[in-house]
Amino acid sequence: MIPGVDGFMYPNEVELQWSVLIVLYPFVTGLVAGAFILASLERVFKVEAVRPTYRLALLTALAFLLVAPLPLQLHLGHPERSFEMYTTPHSSSAMAMFGFVYLWYLTVVLLLEIWLEYRSDIVRLAQSSKGFLRLVYRALTLGSMNLSPEARMIDDKVGYAVTVIGIPSAFLLHGYVGFIFGSIKANPWWSTPLMPIVFLFSAMVSGIAAVLLLYMASMKLKKTPIDMRCVDTIAKYLFYTFVIDFTLEMLDLIHRTYESDESFRSLDFMVHTRLWYSHVVLQIGLGTLIPLALLAANQLWKFSELKRRVMYVTACSLTMIGIFAMRWNVVIGGQLFSKSFLGYTTYKVDLVTREGLLAAIALMLLPFVIFFVLVKLLPPWQESEAHKA
Amino acid sequence: MEITRRDMLSVGGKLLMIASVGATFEQITGAEPPSDAYRMADHWWGMIIDIDKCIGCGNCVRACSNENQVPKDYFRTWVERYEVPEGYVNPRVSSPQGAINGFPPSKQTSLKSFFVPKLCNQCADSPCVQVCPVGATFVSPDGVVLVDKEYCLGCRYCVQACPYGCRYLHPATETVDKCTLCYHRITQGLTTACCENCPTGARQLVDFKDPKDPVHEFLRNNKVTVLKPNMATQAKVYYKNLDGSVR
Prior knowledge:
The complex is a heterodimer.
Chain A: E1 6-7, H1 20-43, H2 54-67, H3 69-75, H4 84-87, H5 98-128, H6 131-141, H7 149-182, H8 195-222, H9 228-259, H10 264-272, H11 276-300, H12 305-331, H13 333-336, E2 343-344, H14 357-377, H15 381-388
Antiparallel strand pairs in A: 1-2
Chain B: H1 5-20, H2 25-29, E1 45-50, H3 59-68, E2 77-84, E3 92-94, E4 112-119, H4 127-131, E5 137-139, E6 145-147, H5 157-161, E7 168-169, E8 176-177, H6 183-186, H7 193-196, E9 203-207, H8 215-221, E10 224-225, E11 237-240
Parallel strand pairs in B: 1-11
Antiparallel strand pairs in B: 1-9, 2-3, 2-4, 5-6, 7-8, 10-11
């Protein structure tokens, strides 16, 4: 008997190949895509109520996007060769496109949109700040110091166009991550055409929840009143998106159960044993049904401001846990059963190895550090407060 | 015998000619042809496995491990023992240490039991080749799926994509490793280590492009199948008398 193995695994399957770091990859890119979609609500779909979170959402997306490739780099056996994906990509590989999708999204969409949005602020800060910061802001202007109304109008128009391009790009970024898993025919837990669309909607859910939490936490730290109209509107969109996401996941579950193909018995057993806590308890129970109930209650009844805040924070925190559990169940769950459908292995998380728990925690904290620096460098509040005034 | 100046020039000239065209001692002496005589386009390699002949001795696993320096607890080839109750429900399958030391006697003597040697199926439409982001794994012109370890990133997408569990990450090189069908041997006119060491001839290396290869008669005269035909990978390892319970 091999420790941690029940039944029969092909001998090379006993050890899991994709670790907790690969769980972080779809989780982090999902936050990026979701935060950007929330930002586009204001910019493209003119949902004015969410204006206070527009810049915050963009900076959240950037902070997480900068970290997105790091878990992959740490995971590679030869990270020094990763540039080969740019220089000699294999055209039939879904994974080969990651570098290009990532660069497109980072440079053409996110950096450009943030720069256009902040350009006038950066020019003002370059003129008003001193010392090293002045140099930083002058560099960030990229030599474009023109703040005439015509120039600002051009910023606005180009920014709008970039956001319009950004929406399908955000869909591409995360739908593509879903495709990486969904296109593996050897793995029935992953192989479903619903995977990209499930990933996309769960990304929107997690990104919206993350921005809502960051906004409320920021206001608390700044001791500034929370714009409840904004928070209510975001919670409403979170609810709608969550309903679609949950419907899609249930559709997948019902389809698998009703079809009951050769893999069903094996996967069903796995969900009822090894994945019971992470899938049924965390993902579906705590991470989906409870937040959905809290958000739905707010659509049906009117609660006091304090109660709403508590409900939103609870719902969003549970949502984040639920979406992380969903990524875990996809990535780790997909490797716990044998492709012979005759056995199961166990994933033991290392603590201090390159792909261990500490590395994962550090990688999850890093976006918040970057976010903090970005917020200090490019304050997202001025615009929103000026707008409110 | 007296050697004249004319003889010296004649022999010296011939030696000079041989050296200038790069001829080797073996060519001159008629010894075994060198590897550069091997033409990839003339071959299309695969394997045939006769389930009824496999006795589960594990010789193939040991030979492979020695020949290819396979790291401990990883396998380029392994043997499974199936013990199947009526109706295929829950077959009992085991492969202790990949069967490198064979199998202990079975406790279930009343069940249908047989051995299944496994290795890379050298698929012509290989999912592992399809997903490799840099093309480090590829099908050679003679039909062998290989990994360029100087190029592999170690992302392990191919390990996930292989339906048969034939790939692993080599712990020393941190690149993906798998059965090469003993490419270093077959291009020298030898057979694979596993086939050479099989005492019953259950495994045979075959060349589908060789009209004289026994594979053609084997495929004509026997009922054969590949593993997981629903995966449509165009596997080139054919099994004779494979039970429907095998996955």
